[in-house]
Give the backbone structure.
Amino acid sequence: MKFGLFGGAAQSGTVDQVVAEAKQAERDGFASYWMPQIFAHDALTLLALIGREVPRIELGTAVVPTYPRHPMMLAQQCLTVNAAVGGRLCLGIGLSHQIVIESMMGMSFEKPVRHMREYLTVLQSLNKTNNVSFSGDVYSTHAGVSVAGSQPFGVVVAALGEQMLRVTAALADGTLTWCTGPSTLANHTIPVLDRASDSLGKPKQRVIAALPVCVTTKVAEARERAAQVFAIYGQLPSYRAMLDKEGAAGPADIAIIGTAAEVTDRISALADIGVTDFAAVEFGGDADESANTRAALRALFS
């Protein structure tokens, strides 16, 4: 299992602060650095900048919403970023949420599985061959792109439900999950993905599990903080469904909290159920907790 880090500075930090955070992640030995795309910095723009100063680790988005971006535009952007970062880009994409796409952006969230299937078909054709000729219900795209110095980039999908996992197995390289606990990963996410891959004669896919992490002796306080910091995810229907599968009241119940030994044991156990990558979302409450959390994570691969 490989170990990555979610960028915490992306939402509130300056560009320089985000670059510094990614540099530290590389110095600390993480295999990957993941940039969220919410309502602050544009993730792909930042990764292009980061990749010029952070030369070794994988750089990924977690995740870029598909509806606002035509797949041809996104393919062109990602090929450009991948050229800038020397082939280290992993594009994480997802549907976002109905409330964001319809209520905030005024777009249709109709038939999301169909949307993702057609989106990936167009995106991956351009990614792998630089050309596409596709006519579907949502997209009709007949065009090509040419980005000198680039190469195909990896694509993972924030796939939670069974239908989306099957689309992922057919058209992407794996899944990147959030608010999905170990029981749900073991009994739902990974088996569905594996069965779909097997039926297509494809190798097992990448499973990147992202979860909140805090090393602390103040467990109750950390759980209360997790409940507050991550409260919105317990209210969004797609994440709520995963929490319900886990039997979790909210995100705090799937956060990895405890002593260094307890935290590293719980993270290490994810490899046994088929998780290929762990992406840590650190949420220390003070400088000591932050330092201890980072030290425990580093101990997993040093």
Summary: The radius of gyration is 19 Å.
